[in-house]
Each structure stands twice: as structure tokens, then as C-alpha cells.
From TrEMBL:
It comes from Luteolibacter soli. It is an enzyme of class 5 (isomerase). Keywords: Isomerase. It holds the Pfam family Aldose_epim. This is Putative glucose-6-phosphate 1-epimerase. Gene3D superfamilies: 2.70.98.10. CDD domains: D-hex-6-P-epi_like. Belongs to the glucose-6-phosphate 1-epimerase family. Its EC number is 5.1.3.15. The lineage of its organism: Bacteria, Pseudomonadati, Verrucomicrobiota, Verrucomicrobiia, Verrucomicrobiales. InterPro entries: Aldose_1/G6P_1-epimerase, G6P_1-epimerase, Gal_mutarotase_sf_dom, GH-type_carb-bd. It comes from the Bacteria. It catalyses: alpha-D-glucose 6-phosphate = beta-D-glucose 6-phosphate.
Length: 292
């Protein structure tokens, strides 16, 4: 049996709570942000900070924020919101469908006077979230105006890990990357990545990435399409301590793996054109027994 209800424990911040035979999930209308996805038989897959409260100018720290129409800082104006404004806007809930395998929810966002103050273009975003034993998200971005624009963005999932020491990231290391911590491009170094200290890299690869978590005995695989790079990010202890919405010690329990359209390779959309970006997350147990 599927149970779906709308809660509003923080006024002005409605959240859909979903209980389905294949997974449990929570989706906020603001940012169309998935806050929880817990497939049946597993512990939660997405980190969501208990310190984070929904406030007007900041996205909830965790789940899967949708970054759009730019990734990271705006190239020309540093006072504009980091990672774009889509994560701060209330999206319209379009539809909800359910079957034996999953619950699908559709949200959309169009330009209005507020978005045009920040970014002078006409657009429509359609997001579909499919929550079951696997998670799939599809983001369609369309230019609905009469002049061309370029747009960037990312799916910014925060994945729970048991501890960084027991974590190996595979799928990125053959690729070169831009190291945001040093501001330099670096060559790929083959082998598997371990997260030690602050890691903030935009890899020049779009293949699947796997988080092999020996502590929790599970493997999370992240696959995207329509993106042009992959970010791997963890703030490390020092940067995490500066963030008011990350509790002490939490940095050791999440890693972001993000299919991204970085600034340098945004998509160019002529009037009427659209671009589709998608994300798929699967999880498998590597332990003998799984959480109940
Ligand atoms: O603090 P925010 O806006 O959630 O961003 C978190 C991180 O997001 C990552 O995608 C960026 O590469 C990092 O540079 C950034 O610090």
C-alpha cells in the first residue's frame, strides 16, 4: 500500500512524505528538492543535515538540490546565489503517479518577475522524480523566450557514507579534473579515489561513479546523462566547521557526487530549444546481512 501525504511542519515549506513498498521518500516543493530516499531494506541514502532549517535565501543542506541556471558562483556577479536560484524557488507540483515499482512526481518552474530580476531570460524547467528501489530524476530545461541563452547547473546529491576512511570512489580517477581547492587543472591519476581532507573537483568525465562503502556494506552507483562533467565534493573537517548548517563530525558521513554542466561548458539554447539532463542512483548491499 502506498501512503502519500503533504506536511507543512515549517510554515511555507510544504513537503510530500511518501511511503511505498519499494522506498520511503520526502520531497520539498521549494527547489523540488528530494530530502530523503530510503529504499526498502537499506538505511537512508541521502544525507540531510539536522542543523539545516529552510530559510528564504539558503537551500536545505542535503538531499538533492537542483542547481540551475548556473553551477557554483555566477560568472559575473558574486552577489547572486551560489548554484543558481532554482533551489530557492517554490516549484509547482504537476502530477503524482504510483505503481508497484515506484512513485513518480512531476514539478515545474517557469520564469517570473523574481527570476528575471536575477537572470533576464524566459524558461521552463520540468523535473520528474521516480522513487522506487532505484531513484531516477529527469530535468528538462527549455528556452521559452525569443533570444538565446546559455545555462549550467547540476544535480547535487549528498550521499550518506558510513565514514570516509572506509570509502573508495571509483569511476572518476582516469579523468583530468579542475581542483577547486588549488584553482588548477590536474591530470587523472588512475586507481581509486579516497577522500582525505577537503576534496572539491570537477572531473572531465560523464561515466558512472561508484561509492564503495565498506563501513555500511553497500555500494551506491550514480549515473547521469546530458551533463558535461562530474563533481566530487567533501568539505573536510576545517571547511565543514565553518558552515553553520553542518553539525560537528557530519563531514565524515557524506560525499556529493554531482552530474554537472560547469560554467565553461554550459548548454546553449536557442529560442524553443530544450536540453535534458538525468540522474539515476542504484544501491546494492555488499554485506552478508542488510538493515531491516
Ligand atoms: O554550500 P553549497 O552552496 O551547498 O555548496 C557546496 C559545495 O558544492 C559543490 O558542488 C561545490 O563544488 C563546492 O565548491 C561547494 O562548496
Amino acid at each position: 500500500m502506498t501512503e502519500i501525504f503533504r506536511a507543512e511542519s515549517v510554515p511555507g515549506f510544504p513537503v510530500h512524505e511518501i511511503r511505498h513498498i519499494r522506498s520511503r521518500a520526502r520531497v520539498a516543493h521549494r527547489g523540488a528538492q528530494l530530502l530523503e530516499w530510503t529504499p526498502t531494506g537499506f538505511d537512508p541514502v541521502l544525507y540531510c543535515s539536522r542543523r539545516s532549517v529552510p530559510v528564504e535565501d539558503t537551500a536545505v543542506r542535503g538531499g538533492i538540490p537542483i542547481c540551475w541556471p548556473w553551477f557554483a558562483d555566477h560568472p559575473d556577479c558574486s552577489s547572486l546565489p551560489l548554484h543558481g536560484f532554482a533551489q530557492l524557488m517554490v516549484w509547482t507540483h504537476g502530477y503524482m503517479e504510483t505503481n508497484d515499482d515506484e512513485v513518480r512526481m512531476g514539478f515545474w518552474l517557469e520564469d517570473d518577475a523574481d527570476t528575471r530580476d536575477l537572470w533576464p531570460h524566459r524558461f521552463r524547467l520540468d523535473l520528474e522524480i521516480c522513487m522506487g528501489a532505484r531513484l531516477a530524476m529527469r530535468l528538462r530545461m527549455k528556452n521559452t523566450g525569443d533570444s538565446a541563452f546559455s545555462a549550467g547547473g547540476a544535480f547535487h546529491p549528498y550521499f550518506v557514507v558510513g565514514g570516509l576512511e572506509g570509502l573508495v570512489v571509483s569511476g572518476v580517477t582516469d579523468a583530468g579534473y579542475f581542483d577547486k581547492t588549488s584553482g588548477r587543472f590536474k591530470a587523472g591519476d588512475a586507481g581509486r579515489l579516497r577522500i582525505e581532507g577537503e576534496v572539491d573537483r570537477i572531473y572531465q568525465t560523464t561515466g558512472p561513479v561508484t561509492l564503495c562503502d565498506q563501513t555500511l556494506g553497500r555500494r551506491i552507483t550514480v549515473e547521469g546523462a546530458g551533463h558535461r562533467g562530474t563533481v566530487v565534493w567533501n568539505p573536510g573537517p576545517e571547511e565543514a566547521a565553518k558552515a553553520r548548517d553542518i553539525a560537528p563530525g557530519d563531514y565524515d558521513h557524506f560525499v556529493a557526487v554531482e552530474p554537472v554542466l560547469p560554467q565553461e561548458v554550459q548548454v546553449f539554447l536557442s529560442p524553443g530549444e530544450e536540453h535534458l539532463m538525468s540522474l539515476e542512483v542504484t544501491i546494492e548491499s555488499t554485506a552478508l546481512s542488510r538493515a531491516g
